User: Fold this.
Amino acid sequence: MRYELYYWPSIQGRGEFVRLALEDASADYVDVARLPARKGMGTPAMMRLLEGESAACPPFAPPFLRVAGTKQVIFQTANILLFLGPRLGLVQKSEAGRLSAHQLQLTIADWLTEVHDTHHPIGGGLYYEEQKREAKRRSANFCAERLPKFLGYFENIIAGNPRWNGGLAGRATSYVDLSIFQMIAGLRYAFPRTMARLEVEHPRLVALHQRIAARPRIAAYLASKRRIPFNQSGIFRHYPELDVAG
Amino acid sequence: MRYELYYWPSIQGRGEFVRLALEDASADYVDVARLPARKGMGTPAMMRLLEGESAACPPFAPPFLRVAGTKQVIFQTANILLFLGPRLGLVQKSEAGRLSAHQLQLTIADWLTEVHDTHHPIGGGLYYEEQKREAKRRSANFCAERLPKFLGYFENIIAGNPRWNGGLAGRATSYVDLSIFQMIAGLRYAFPRTMARLEVEHPRLVALHQRIAARPRIAAYLASKRRIPFNQSGIFRHYPELDVAG
Assistant:
């Protein structure tokens, strides 16, 4: 089974949470928008689906996924992982296990939106420079209140998982663990000073990030050109003036 | 089967999307935090679960749901509806149908977060009065850019649904339709002037809102004391100074 992933070609963004799952499972997939437009791929192919050319239920925004040869377009990052999880062996098979992983993934999605809004608190269609003053206030609140709350929550989930010492959901590595890896990596890029201070209090999250990074397929992916570097167009952005908590 | 819903007792908030599904299905449920604390219910009962007293995976925030007599706590509004949908007959049974409804529900969840942030663009822990200036900017952007985008998207989904003329997902009324009812009702409360202008261009959403409001169990619920009125502590709030688009 071949998967077609559709996401903006120049940023990690929300697509990265799906890429990590596909890479860890060594799945057969194509990253459509990063392939040549002259071969019918590229951003134009993504835009055609986004504009609803062939789907009864077109996506609101990238990322979205299609199983090659089928019509259904699956969108919303957490929904894509809900679909892929059992197929890639990255979640428990029981309904209870899938719901439990999914609610953690949705909480990560909320967290990621808050990260985005640290640099875009007024509107995604405006430049950062047009909302810099508000971004400073929102980031200060994020670093002082929200970031510790999210980190503390997930640290406790690891501590309380009776099934497996060190992961978030179930006995084995799940897509939620891969997503937490991405959150820690991104937060280190965006808020290095704040994270250096907070990581000391969250050793389980640090250890989980390290273990995911060392998984052979993830390590190979991170070292490859398929991994787009963090940059100032993505969701995680490094503006030193925003990294100023406490 | 009896469901226990846990949510803040004095606002509609995110809990209302679950209440509407339970009410429409005439499900056997208790709204735990609205019952007396002296009987072991009330907000204290909710706080005990929120603080992880008995769950391996405690919720990040209300709402959450438990099937009476079981241990698993299901949280994140859209995840609760993913769980309840097939059990209440409010979604198609096929995996494709469930995923399709869920991705629309997740898009509604994103939309709702943006509504919340119109009055709290800096931080949920600060008073509105402490972020009023930023709220004016964010609301102007929301009313001019984001609200038309979301309304247009869902209007098109109704138009494109080949299965049923007038609903969002599948042939019959789904929990997504109930949630869109709530969005339209809340937006009318919060942004009456902007909505009066925009509704003209979105007749299918207006018709869907009207049809849901007329469903006998929903009509009975809306007329009952179980329906908490909109108020200035909820997610939808009416601040005239924020209702000023274009």
Notes: Chain A has two domains: 3-88, 95-242. The first strand of chain A starts at residue 3 and ends at 6.
